[in-house]
Design a protein that fits this description.
alpha/beta, Pyruvate Kinase, Chain: A, domain 1, 3 domains, 16 helices, about 35% helix
Length: about 475
């Protein structure tokens, strides 16, 4: 089943998509990677959803990626005696360390690291920024604040400190338990939440197998101060605009998104744009025009993938949301100006044999009007280079490693086929032509460009380029 677009779609599984028929419909409508959100649901529910995806994968005969999204450190206030309070502008309001229920004058905060990071003048955001406090004075177990933006406040609402790098581990005890469970399931990607600094990625690396791919979710402005280092240490990047938009002013988020996408593309790392892309489709069968433009902007910027969260997990129209995103992406990629944007943003190849071969494959495909580029890979590194080139034709990836095929489902322009590696040049050409014909990427008489590594079966040795003409199945 060939996708007629290059940007990929990630969809979150949840109560609205918890049966095999719906998961299969989501895949057939356009989902390339399914997300398990460990901020919600039990391990038993995630195990069942993982099994559904693998059942659908077997039925459709296509590699499907699964991403485990860890919750990360969630900072919250404690509870109130009456469950909620109403704060008015200018009033004094105290935050205190501990669990004792609060009232109209104070709220408990069970996080000593917050008080360690505060200073007079700092701002505290509660309930996704709906309530804003300014610190007047503080100590190791309390903060005296003034209410700047008033509003209602109830038990266990989230707490954010814009502009403050917190001395906390990005991988919590819950994350470690969820991570061990996800690795046991056999997920293809692990998303690390609330990355603030390069050390957060290094911590996660020590907890996963060497070949596990890590997505760094950028939802803290502090990560922007060391963006290039975070990108270099990660396997992929997610622009998590929900929490990022809490601590940044709304007008700053679009520029931050473009900067993150550009940094990931320069490094040749997949980048996912996420959060509220088609949010109105939680309850409506069609999106707003602003949401359609938002999706289109991410495609024009060159994002590898776009993600649906609540729309597919808990919304009333999960399949319609995927279908709409699919149509928007296809329409944008048919726009002639899209190709010009992609060309302007193309990165120069590195001075390596593999990059030189991959860049040449893109140029040869453009010059000859080839139908596709066919790439052999074991680890996936050749496919990453090919996608970085953003060629004008599809990239058909042939790999003997099922895990690699699933992982590359996130990658721009790539269609993966799990198949035996080539045994020689003749076999390399025959397999490439057969798979290009079978997958619909080339018709009889059309040419394809093939890249591979010699000796065959050796990872990281892309050094060969061939041009072949596809024959009919009868020839």
């Amino acid at each position: 089943m060939r996708r007629h677009r290059s940007a990929k779609i990630v969809a979150t599984l949840g109560p609205s998509s918890a049966d095999e028929a719906t998961v299969r419909a989501l895949f057939e409508t356009g989902v390339d990677v399914f997300r398990l959100n460990f901020s919600h649901a039990s391990h038993a529910e995630h195990r069942a959803r993982h099994a559904l995806v693998r059942t659908v994968e077997d039925a459709v005969g296509r590699p499907v990626g699964i991403l485990a999204d860890l919750q990360g450190p969630k900072l919250r206030i404690g509870k109130f005696q009456d469950g909620q309070v109403a704060l008015v502008q200018g009033q004094r309001f105290t935050l205190t360390l501990g669990q004792e229920p609060g009232d109209e004058t104070r709220a408990p905060v069970p996080h000593p690291e917050i008080f360690a990071a505060l200073a007079p003048g700092a701002e505290i955001l509660l309930d996704d920024g709906k309530v804003r406090l300014r610190v007047a004075a503080c100590g190791p177990d309390h903060a005296e604040t003034v209410v700047v933006t008033p509003g209602g406040l109830s038990d266990r609402k989230g707490l954010n400190l814009p502009g403050v790098t917190l001395p906390i581990d990005s991988v919590t005890r819950k994350d470690r338990e969820d991570l061990a469970f996800a690795l046991d399931l056999g997920v293809d990607w692990v998303a690390l939440s609330f990355v603030q600094r390069p050390e957060d990625i290094k911590t996660a690396r020590r907890l996963v197998p060497e070949d596990m791919a890590i997505v760094a979710k950028l939802e803290k402005p502090a990560a922007l101060d060391c963006l290039e280092e975070v990108v270099a240490l990660s396997d992929a990047i997610m622009v998590a605009r929900g929490d990022l938009g809490v601590e940044l002013a709304p007008e700053e988020v679009p520029a931050a998104q473009k900067r993150i996408v550009r940094a990931a593309r320069e490094a040749g790392k997949p980048v996912v744009v996420a959060t509220q892309m088609l949010d109105s489709m939680m309850n409506a069968p069609s999106p707003t025009r602003a949401e359609a433009s938002d999706v289109a902007t991410a495609v024009y910027d060159g994002a590898d993938a776009l993600m649906l969260s609540g729309e597919s997990a808990a919304g009333r129209y999960p399949i319609e949301a995927v279908a709409m995103m699919n149509r928007i992406v296809e329409h944008v990629e048919r726009d002639p100006s899209h190709r010009r944007y992609v060309h302007w943003q193309r990165q120069n190849p590195e001075a390596t044999t593999a990059d030189a071969i991959t860049a040449a494959a893109r140029q040869v495909a453009e010059t000859l009007g080839a139908a596709a580029i066919v790439t052999y890979t074991s680890s996936g590194s050749t496919a990453l280079r090919a996608a970085r080139e953003r060629p004008p034709v599809p990239i058909l990836v042939l790999t003997p490693d099922r895990g690699t095929a699933r992982r590359l489902a996130l990658l721009w322009g790539v269609h993966c086929v799990h198949t035996d590696d080539a045994t020689g040049f003749t076999d390399m050409v025959e397999k490439a032509c057969t798979q290009a014909l079978a997958s619909g990427h080339a018709a009889p008489g059309e040419r394809i460009v093939i890249t591979a590594g010699v000796p065959f079966g050796t990872p990281g040795t892309t050094n060969a380029l061939r041009i072949a003409r596809v024959q009919s199945a009868e020839d």
